């Protein structure tokens, strides 16, 4: 079971708002970045850049740069994607991870994206792709190293990270099952290659939901019985292959919202293809507490330090 089967859309919305409130309350006390470092040298910050020409705040992103000068090739760059059950949240809810990475030598681009139920799948996936195109088009301005691009997301953001990462080496026909872009859209050729993906608490497989379960209809449009192809297209596990970039998953063992077995299944699927995937389990931690746990930021840092190698 991916999510509790009896939650309807309104209950999911209430849960999402509760999680956001908890994040806001706890963020001041649990900071994955160094408070002392933050008070010494402000990070170069370029807020509310428009990466996508959509209405409102959905197409905005924040850019944070390290305080050190870039190498000749530029900064390793991480696209950071917030959670919130695809229906709530914004870039500020995951900003501290972005600041933590910037302190460690990475440029970060933290995005808003279009939210369900007003915007259903695959618009959120295309927003992630559009932000990658924007990174490619603004590489010179912000010194992004397009050969060292990583993704980090938590919860729904973790799902979007894994999905875009797993799809990038698939045939265009498969990629278009999770996109509204036409096959001849020039943006496909502008997508930089993702080199590493880190995901916290990610839903990985919607294909195991009961056929008539409608708990994700607000995001996927209907039940799995009525839209089986959509549920498959939206499942990262359906697209794993030997050519996928290395993946690090971080998941709380006591996560009741997104049970850890979805990440275990993804790990096994990746390993069966020969792709690189690691799963870090946080004992006794639930969904929210794993997001807040210092170990999550440490594991993220260790992973990107190996896969993207920032200069210090």
UniProtKB/TrEMBL annotation:
> What residue stretches are annotated with the BD-FAE-like domain?
62-269
- According to its UniProt record, the EC number is 3.1.1.-
Signal peptide start-end: 1-29
* EC top class, as a word: hydrolase
Could you tell me the keywords of this UniProt record?
Answer: Hydrolase, Signal
Question: Could you confirm whether the keyword Signal appears in this record?
Answer: yes
Q: Name one GO molecular function term.
A: hydrolase activity
**Superkingdom, taxonomy of origin:** Bacteria
- A Pfam family that the UniProt record links to this protein: BD-FAE
Q: What is this protein called?
A: Acetyl esterase
Q: Which organism is it from?
A: Novipirellula herctigrandis
Traced from the root, the source organism's taxonomic lineage reads: Bacteria, Pseudomonadati, Planctomycetota, Planctomycetia, Pirellulales
Q: Which gene encodes it?
A: aes_2
């Amino acid at each position: 079971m991916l999510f509790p089967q009896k939650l309807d859309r309104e209950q999911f919305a209430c849960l999402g708002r509760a999680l956001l409130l908890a994040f806001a309350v706890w963020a001041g006390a649990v900071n994955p970045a160094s408070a002392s470092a933050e008070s010494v040298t402000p990070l170069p910050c370029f807020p509310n850049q428009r990466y996508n020409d959509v209405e409102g705040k959905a197409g905005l992103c924040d850019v944070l740069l390290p305080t050190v000068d870039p190498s000749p090739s530029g900064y390793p760059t991480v696209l950071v994607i917030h959670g919130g059950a695809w229906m709530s949240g914004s870039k500020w809810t995951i900003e501290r991870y972005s600041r933590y990475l910037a302190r460690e030598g990475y440029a970060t681009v933290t995005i808003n994206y279009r939210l369900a139920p007003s915007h259903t799948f695959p618009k959120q996936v295309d927003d992630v792709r559009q932000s990658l195109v924007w990174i490619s088009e603004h590489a010179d301005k912000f010194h992004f190293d397009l050969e060292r691009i990583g993704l980090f997301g938590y919860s729904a953001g973790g799902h979007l990270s894994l999905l875009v990462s797993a799809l990038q080496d698939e045939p265009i026909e498969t990629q278009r099952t999770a996109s509204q872009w036409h096959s001849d859209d020039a943006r496909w050729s502008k997508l930089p290659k993702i080199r590493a993906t880190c995901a916290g608490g990610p839903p990985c497989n919607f294909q195991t939901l009961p056929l008539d379960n409608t708990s994700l209809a607000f995001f996927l449009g209907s039940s799995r019985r009525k839209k089986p192809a959509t549920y498959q297209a939206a499942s990262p596990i359906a697209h794993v292959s030997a050519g996928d970039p290395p993946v690090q998953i971080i998941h709380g063992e006591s996560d009741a919202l997104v049970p850890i077995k979805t990440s275990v299944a993804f790990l096994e699927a990746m390993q069966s293809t020969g792709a690189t995937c690691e799963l870090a389990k946080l004992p006794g931690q639930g969904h929210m507490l794993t997001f807040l746990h210092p170990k999550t930021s440490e594991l993220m840092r260790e992973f990107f330090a190996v896969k993207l190698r920032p200069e210090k």
